[in-house]
Design brief:
Layout lengths: L3 E2 H14 L5 H13 L11 E2 L1 H15 L4 H5 L1 E4 L2 E4 L11 H12 L6 E5 L5 H9 L4 E6 L2 H16 L6 E4 L15 E6 L4 E2 L6 H5 L3 H4 E2 L5 H13 E10 L7 H7 L4 E8 L5 E8 L2
Parallel strand pairs: 5-6, 5-8, 6-7, 8-11, 9-10
Antiparallel strand pairs: 1-2, 3-4, 11-13, 12-13
Helix pairs in contact: 1-2, 1-3, 2-3, 5-6
The structure holds S-adenosylmethionine (SAM).
The site of S-adenosylmethionine has 23 residues, from helix 6, strand 6 and helix 9.
């Protein structure tokens, strides 16, 4: 069999993905090659030559990626914190900026033993599982309204508990329902939420427009409709001194903190930027 240089296959993949308008063509070409070869991306330079079936498999995935199918749907997984979750059609792919919400939450929990945590709008359950992985003593509740998202979340939760992580408590529910998790009112140490927040009508790339579920991305009231309910749920669920962190659109740097400040039981309201300097999440504490 005629072996071929992997480097050339990656160069060709990068060219095709660049022409297709993919945002990070070289990185995606590398990650597709690494996925096909079953190695970490960093080990690709140690694979100089590959067999034709490998080139063909890379070519097939690159052709799909060029149609703007999300990379994570093709590889089947996405990472958040120190965990990976399975993703595919019907569930939102966790994004790097949500790492910041996780980091803030973990820092907030330092010094609190056996904390109760709620992840509103859990999607694939990535945030809930990443938190449970770092804090095995935590009791982590997670909720989503969408049946397909919940099926992925259930699968991911099972994989993680089978691997020895503390199981999370996954629920089907609507965070606009003021009775959701009523049994936890005033008992929660930390409420995290990455809700749908993109204002309707905003341009989004094909990966998002055609593949992420619309209900996971867009929200009414210029993107604030679900955030408003997350704030109300946080104010109700948190124990005195408990913490709230909600991700938002970069256009909500004033509007999201204003919604939080409007709740008199929430204090210490701060907005935080992401890695690119854009307003990205708001945090607060319950008075106590
Ligand atoms: C942006 S995705 C976030 C998923 C996950 N937290 C993450 O960071 O990857 C938002 C999620 O909120 C869910 N959602 C939308 N409206 C909701 C509601 N009213 N109640 C509960 N979940 C909702 C969607 O189904 C979707 O899974």
């Amino acid at each position: 069999m005629n072996r071929q240089p992997l480097r050339l296959a990656i160069m060709e993949a990068t060219r095709i993905l660049t022409e297709a308008g993919v945002e990070s063509p070289r990185s995606d070409a590398d990650l597709i090659a690494a996925h096909v070869l079953g190695v970490d991306r960093g080990r690709l330079p140690m694979v100089p030559l590959v067999d034709p079936p490998v080139i063909e498999a890379i070519g097939q995935l690159v052709a799909q990626r060029a149609k703007r199918i999300p990379l994570q749907y093709l590889t089947g997984w996405a990472a958040l914190g120190n965990v990976t979750v399975n993703v595919g059609a019907g569930v939102f792919v966790p994004r790097p900026e949500t790492e910041l919400l996780l980091e803030w939450g973990l820092k907030f929990l330092q010094g609190r033993e056996y904390p109760v945590v709620v992840d509103l709008c859990t999607g694939s359950a990535a945030l809930a599982l990443a938190l449970a992985h770092e804090r095995p003593d935590a009791v982590v509740y997670a909720v989503d309204v969408d049946a397909q998202a919940l099926a992925w979340a259930r699968h991911n939760a099972d994989v993680h508990s089978d691997a020895g992580n503390t199981p999370i408590r996954l629920y089907s529910g609507d965070i606009t329902d003021p009775t959701m998790f009523a049994e936890l009112d005033g008992l929660v140490d930390l409420v995290l939420c990455n809700p749908p927040y993109v204002p309707e009508g905003t341009y989004v790339p094909p990966e998002v427009a055609e593949h992420d579920p619309a209900r996971a991305v867009f929200a009414e009231e210029s993107g604030l409709a679900i955030i408003r309910h997350a704030v109300a749920a946080g104010a109700r669920l948190l124990r005195p001194g408990g913490g709230l962190a909600i991700e938002h659109d970069d256009t909500h740097g004033s509007a999201a903190p204003a919604l939080v400040r409007a709740r008199r039981v929430l204090t210490g309201v701060e907005d935080h930027n992401d890695y690119t300097g854009r307003a990205r999440f708001v945090t607060a504490r319950r008075l106590g």
